[in-house]
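FORM 7B: Structural annotation worksheet

SECTION A. Query
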Amino acid sequence: MKDFEYFRPKTVNEALYLYEQAGSAAKLLAGGTELVNEMRMGKTQPEQIIDLKFIPSLDYMDLGEEGLKIGALYRVRDAECSETLKQSPYNVLSYAASTLGSPQVRNKATIVGNLCRCSPSADLIPPLIALGAIARILTSQGVQRTTPVEDMLLGPGKTSLQPGEIVTDLEIPKMPVHAGCAYCKLSPRKSLDLAVVGVAAMVRLNSQYSECLEVRIALGAVAPTAIRARRAELMLTGRRLTPKLIEEAAQKAAEEAKPIDDVRSTAWYRGKMVAVATKRAIGLALEQIQTWRQ
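SECTION B. Predicted structure
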């Protein structure tokens, strides 16, 4: 591992200043579960490391009437174990967190870090997209801007963040009434493995539970980034969600995927499993609606 300078800012403003001064020579460290491994293997060799872990204002989760807010240092393990999340309409985040890597990784990794690393198979990104999450970003000039999570994703390991910008937190809008969200992950093993396919679905019904008013389907591990299955969503919106219609929409989602062959799976298998996972995710979201209805 190449030598580097290490900085431990105590405030966001201090971190912004250091990041602006260093530019592309610096890397931000939150959980470090991927960055440290890349440094050990020589894939990245930053001249400076800016450790955010000692900025207490970034480590929080706040569930209020207006929705959910998650700070940049809120760990995956915290989400997995949070009874507040488990008993809320956002429990999909708690479940998705439980599927990520090993307990050791979850103890260090952060939800925002999982987003910013932008792996195609990231487990938290599809649920964040399905929930309509928005990232709050501080620029190098100290100006705050916001962007939907799905608009941040440009390619494997690449986001729309500019040099000197820091994601401070995520804002997730209030879950509408008669709505549910679920995540379905397919992997060779129940734990430790990256997703072969990951699908999150958010479904909102009318007050009579007879028509789908809104649906978001996010596909992971089957394209360079997580993507929306917009044609499948269009098939379901404004219609009664019968088993036959859900099956057809799941097949349409599979057609929208852009899988590849790699060491974990073939493109053919991934394509088939998109339909399976989409059907399951929609079904689980509908079950959640019924649970909250009771």
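SECTION C. Observations
The chain is about 35% helix and 25% strand. The first strand starts at residue 5 and ends at 7.

SECTION D. Sign-off
Analyst initials: ____
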